[in-house]
Write a structure and sequence with these properties.
Length: 164
């Protein structure tokens, strides 16, 4: 078999990742994520890693303030290259976990989580070498307001203890 044919077969057997998978893959690693939640400044570390053979991204958020502990684990997977399914779990317990649906468009990850009192619209968009993560609270009456915003910049994982 010629070298050219072998190289062509290798290229055919490893297709390019879908837009959704490529966007999620950009989150892999650790991130310093300072921000604001409901008007309060927060210090957060975020870590993302693939699970179950690259089918799901586990995004972990760990609050760094011992006086106000918070941890979240979010699993996100893509259906067909653009559509996403997700599940949000956090330290408030199972009663505050929620399924999410969304998509990737132009590299931005958009997932909405429906809770009984509001939909929380998460948008994670590339920003420089990192990401901008915003969460908007959308009430059934059509009103909306910022709920949280984080700026993610790359950082070494170090020895931070994550909940998952």
């Amino acid at each position: 078999m010629s070298v050219a044919l072998a190289a062509s077969l290798l290229l055919l057997s490893d297709p390019a990742p879908s837009p959704a998978h490529a966007a999620l893959d950009g989150l892999v690693g650790c991130w310093d994520a300072p921000g604001e939640v409901m008007g309060k400044r927060v210090a957060t570390l975020v870590r993302a890693a693939w699970r179950l053979g690259g089918r799901y991204l586990l995004l972990e958020s760990h609050g760094l303030d011992p006086a106000d502990p918070y941890d979240a684990a979010i699993t996100i997977g893509d259906h067909d290259g653009t559509r996403l399914s997700a599940w949000w779990m956090d330290s408030f317990g199972a009663g505050y976990s929620a399924a999410g649906k969304g998509q990737v468009a132009d590299g931005t990850i958009a997932v909405d989580y429906a809770y009984p009192d509001a939909v929380y619209a998460n948008r994670i968009a590339p920003q420089g070498k990192g990401w901008r993560w915003t969460i908007t609270e959308r009430k059934p009456d059509g009103s909306e307001k910022p709920f949280a915003a984080y700026t993610l910049t790359p950082v070494k994982c170090g020895d931070t203890a994550f909940a998952f």
